[in-house]
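Give me structure tokens for this 232-residue protein.
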Amino acid sequence: MEKGKTEDGRREWNRHTLIWITPEGRQYAAEHILLWPWEEDDQKTNAWKKLLVQDVEVPGIICRQPEPKAGFWLAGFSHWEYQNGSRMRMQAYVPEETVWKSCSPFELCAGSACDRLCSYYPELEPIFRAAQRFDLEAGLYGSTALGWVTKRPYRNQDSDFDLYIRAGQKGDLKGFAQELEKLEKDLGVRFDAEVDINGFGVKLKEILENKKTFLGKGLYDVKILDRENSMF
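Here you go.
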């Protein structure tokens, strides 16, 4: 099996992974935009979506694949502006062969990139220190990740920091959560942490509720995970 690919030949990407697409791939995506159930197919709606998906500076985001299509990925695209109080978002299919670069939430913060991120967002420095102390790996997604890679105004005064967490063998999620709560009060910011459990994203707060099961969001489905059989 080729490194970086699954047995069926698909790339090994997961939710929240950013992808950069060739102009040809963006043109295909502009012609294969999915409408949300509440939307009407009108010129005004399609106009901003086609402009966004063809903006070479804005990466797509790997999202849940409800109906996997061989050779294609469903990607989300988010605008930095809002409409009627909600961020302008869209989804479109992208040919896998037209993706020339990808970056997971963890790769975004790897090595020297972490220092540059902390210089730009000082609130993140104590987060990465805490993650290391509690044997966790911290990544970023959402508006912070998009703002960082595009330098567009995705973040505003109401934005939180979306964290993606992966635990080591001695990972202390409870200790990290307590540190997050303290930092939120001290820094006056909000953190929304999701934990990777066997490829499924679970809200950190839900894990700490000590219920027998919790909701996990995966690349292909959403399922109820059993605490007893889950690895942290």
